[in-house]
Amino acid sequence: MSKKAHEIYNEAHEIWNPNRVDTFRQSGIEMVMGEREGSYFKDLDGHTFINMHSNGGVFNLGHRNPEIKEALIKGAELVDAGNHYFPSQYKNELTEKLLAVSPDNMKYVFTLNGGGEAIDAAVKFARRATQRSRVVSLSCAFHGASGISMQAGNPELAEYFNMKPNPDYYTHIEYNNLEELEEVLKREDTAAVIIESIPATAGFPMPIEGYHKNVEKLAHQYGALYIADEVQTGLMRSGEMWCCCKYGAKPDMIVTGKGLSGGYYPMSAVIMTEEAGAWMEDDGFAHTSSFNGTELGCIVSSKVLDILNRPETKENIQMLTDFFAKNLAEIQKRHSDFLVEVRQCGVIMGLKTSHPMGGQALMVSLIKNGVWAVMANFDKSVLQFKPGLLMKKETAEDVIKILDKSLTDAVQMLAVAESK
Ligand SMILES: Cc1ncc(COP(=O)(O)O)c(C=O)c1O
């Protein structure tokens, strides 16, 4: 007989991750995922949830997308991971597809498996290309939990692991503050300015007018490269392939991940200009990893790009964008004391509440009512709201109904907690 959720949680508390287990249990949650398909998943008791977290975009095309599954199975009949040293038709095919959807200044693609790993690689490429070391990044950013990526993100996370970013190599600045950026760049020792096109873990605060174009301009003026972290905002989530390009910018490197996996095979990529990729002209073996350019992964990611490029996909994104814009505005009117701001760019959305823990309360009330969405870790007053691109209108309607009820529940939950 298969195990019950509480048994799995008990075991997980012992051998997997005690604090994570305790944290979920403290909120009355013992979620273990069961069956899953499209925008939905079930827990082990058969309760259904709409996925508005999408693992930050891993499930950009939904759970177990049938076309991706087919590509994966057929691909596994043909190839395996391949050998990371040799070229391959599957690697070339994915590279061509990624270049075709990227700005015309891009020349090379290096594929890896995780977003953080790809950020690390991009920063290394920038350091090599510029022969400089400094990384300028946002203090409200999350770029991953590997070495460089963690130090480039919110410094508190790195400090937890005794990896306090060395001020000779890292400078953290405020989002939307171009003066502060220019002050640092004037030292002329910056290799890369790395910006999450809309910072996810900060709750998707929207950029000021012209932000990305000015980041590009300033970076180039002072000899630095501009790396756009599109791990959460890329792959059509803004309505265009890359969110920074929607805002008119042409970075030197685009880092993508999460949804490139099709939800099945971990894949990430650094898309870069000739200048950024020059190390591959000098010593192509200088950066590598066992699973870089894995052939089965390239087959899966090529299928992801085919689906993203379809007119029907674009139409659905537009439908969802308009639907949520209209309905969230109406919901906001009904809950205006609590839901104080709706942030939206395509299907990238953040719901800002008036309470410092409002995003967390909303996350808990939503899951109790059948929607899984996650608070913004660096600003717990905000809930990240992230549907898959192929969500149907009926499902989006259910999301809105559940949100309406959950907003009321969250306010009550916070009032009860405060009265104790
Ligand atoms: C914006 C952003 N960049 C990079 C990463 C790191 O990706 P990964 O978790 O695949 O290493 C994340 C992960 O959540 C992210 O949100």
UniProtKB/TrEMBL annotation:
Keywords for the protein's UniProt record, in alphabetical order: Aminotransferase, Pyridoxal phosphate, Transferase
Family: Belongs to the class-III pyridoxal-phosphate-dependent aminotransferase family.
Top-rank taxon: Bacteria
Identification of the protein by name: Acetylornithine aminotransferase
Lineage of source species: Bacteria, Bacillati, Bacillota, Bacilli, Lactobacillales
Keyword hit for Protease: no
Entry's Gene Ontology molecular function annotations: identical protein binding; pyridoxal phosphate binding; transaminase activity
InterPro entries attached to this UniProt entry: Aminotrans_3, Aminotrans_3_PPA_site, Class-III_PLP-dep_AT, PyrdxlP-dep_Trfase, PyrdxlP-dep_Trfase_major, PyrdxlP-dep_Trfase_small
PROSITE patterns per record: AA_TRANSFER_CLASS_3
Keyword Transferase: yes
Required cofactor(s): pyridoxal 5'-phosphate
